[in-house]
Amino acid sequence: MSEWTLSRLTPDSSHLETLAGLTHAEWGYLYPEESLTQWTDHMRASCGSGGVPSVFVATVRDAGGERVVGTASLLSADLPTRPALSPWLASVLVLPGWRGRGIASALIDRVHREAEAHAVTRCYLYTPDQQALYARLGWRSQETLTYRNAVVTVMTRDMSAPGFDATTLI
Fold first, then answer.
1. Mapping DSSP to helix (H, G, I), strand (E, B) and coil, where does residue 15 land?
2. Following DSSP, what letter does each residue of 84-116 receive, concatenated?
3. Which of 3, 50, 72, 133 is most buried, judged by most C-beta within 10 A?
4. Three-class SS of residue 151?
5. Total of domains in the chain
6. Could you tell me the mean pLDDT of each successive run of 10 residues in the chain, 170 residues long?
7. Full-model pTM
C-alpha cells in the first residue's frame, strides 16, 4: 500500500491541471457555462500562499511517479446564493480507489488548521450527499436549499472548536 501526503498547491504546480480536470469532471455540471480552461484559471487563482484562499492536494508516490489522489480548498466564496457567508471549505474530493483511508478527513482537518491559523472563527461548506462525514468531523447543518437544480445542505463549523485529529486514521 502506497503512503499518501498532503501539501499546499501552488499556481505553478504540475498537479494544477490534473486537479482542475478532476474537480471539473465532478462538479462542472453545476457550472455548465464554465470551460475547463476557466475552471483551471479559477483554481490557479485560489492557490494562495496561506489563509484564504488555499488549495491542498493529497498525492501518492509509486513506481509511476507522484499522482494526485485528493484535494480540498479554503475559499472566500463558494455558494453565490449566500454571499454573506465566508469563508468556505470547498472542493473536497478523493478519488474512488483511495476512499476509506482517511484522506478526506485529513484534507478537511488541514483546511481547518489553515483557517484557525489565520484567525478564521467560522467556516461554511455545502454538500449534496456527505452530511454524515462532515457531521462526524464537527460540522452542523445550517439549511437545506436547491442550488442549480441540486438539493444541498449548507453546514457550518466553529473554527475555535478542536479539529478532528486525522492522524488517528493514518
1. coil
2. T---EEEEEEE-GGGTTSSHHHHHHHHHHHHHH
3. 72
4. strand
5. 1
6. 88 97 94 95 97 97 91 96 97 96 95 94 95 94 94 93 47
7. 0.90
